Amino acid sequence: MRLDPDIPFGELKKAVEEKYRESADFFKDAKVALAFEGRPLTEEQEEEILEIIDKSCKLKVLCIVDKAQLEKQEEPKKQENEDSLKNVGQFFKGTLRFGQILESETSMVLIGDVEEGAQIIARGNVVVLGKLKGSVYAGAGENESRAFVAALFMEPSQIKIGMYTRKSRVRRSERRMRPKISFVRDGRIRFETITKDDLYEENHKLLEE
Length: 209
What we know:
By secondary structure, the protein is α/β, with parallel strands linked by helices. Helix content is about 30%, strand content about 30%. It has five helices and 13 strands. It has helices spanning about 10-20, 25, 45-55, 65-85, 195-209; strands at about 30-35, 60-65, 90-95, 100-105, 110, 120, 125-130, 135-140, 150-155, 160, 165, 180-185, 190-195. The strands form three sheets. Strands 3-5-7-9-12-13 form a six-stranded mixed beta sheet, covered by helices on one side. Strands 4-6-8-10-11 form a five-stranded mixed beta sheet, with no helix packed on it. A two-stranded parallel ribbon has the order 1-2. A hairpin with a 2-residue loop joins strand 10 and strand 11. The longest helix has 19 residues, at about 65-85. The radius of gyration is 29 Å and the shape is rod-shaped. The model is unreliable at about 80-85 (pLDDT under 50).
């Protein structure tokens, strides 16, 4: 409840009574925690206002909270939520065409194709549910070599994971290819064929990191 800091306390009480009497149908018999802001109150003044609210409507005030203290307690939770959001994979649906660049501060799942001349850059992992023919950079900006890149059709022009770079040696073919995953092992970027079940598991792993 925001209180006018300038009017006398007697007038303030009348304003509170009028406000809650007019809002009685809106509040009904709701149960709330109440915080005062705008002006300091003594315990006696707080009790007087609570008594006015009780007589003016059926609203039940369960407790009075210190707004400043509440915000202080919520700040670590807010920061924790923001930090956790950084680890959640982002989704993009569509085809990246020549000259287009898609960047993500987290991991990325792209539902579509990455054509030659297009580029994906992500701080986390990259999963392409389509054809990967452009360039891709996973683990960007952090030399994160634990990242991986997976695609249903893997023919990237260039792939970079953390500090390691490699031009694709996958033989270009119009034949149907099996899904592949690329990762760093022993200081080299390697490609391996994966099954659909493997890709499903990696997709979930991406979102849980």
